[in-house]
Amino acid sequence: MYFLAGLFSMLDALLDQPMCQALSAVPLAQPISSAILRSEGPLADVLMCALNYEKGNFEAVSLPDVDAESISTAYLDAVKWARCLAADVPSQD
Q: Which of 29, 47, 55, 92 is the most exposed place for a label (fewest CB within 10 A)?
């Protein structure tokens, strides 16, 4: 669920639509939609942690029972995965 929450958390930007409109066509589990639309629940805590890391707001990067090194490793692995995925997408030129 955490992976899907992160994936869909940027759907509004990808579709250039308000988030509630972008998610209306996607049948997501309630915990995912609550995290994205209302910043509620444990998934929202992880999304906020990732956003804080991305913004360099390292004082706010924390999760219960997860050490800072694990958070850093997970974030950097996700960025690496996204770059590899993007590199495999054919250009539309």
A: 92
pTM of this structure: 0.81
Domain region containing 29 = 2-88
93 within domain boundaries:
no
How far is it, in rounded angstroms, from Cα 32 to Cα 15?
18
Helix/strand/coil percent split, the chain, to 5: 70, 0, 30
SS3 at position 9: coil
Local structure of residue 71 (DSSP, 8 states):
H
- pLDDT digit string (tens) for 74-88? 999 999 998 888 887
Expressed in angstroms, the distance from the first to the final Cα of the chain is: 34
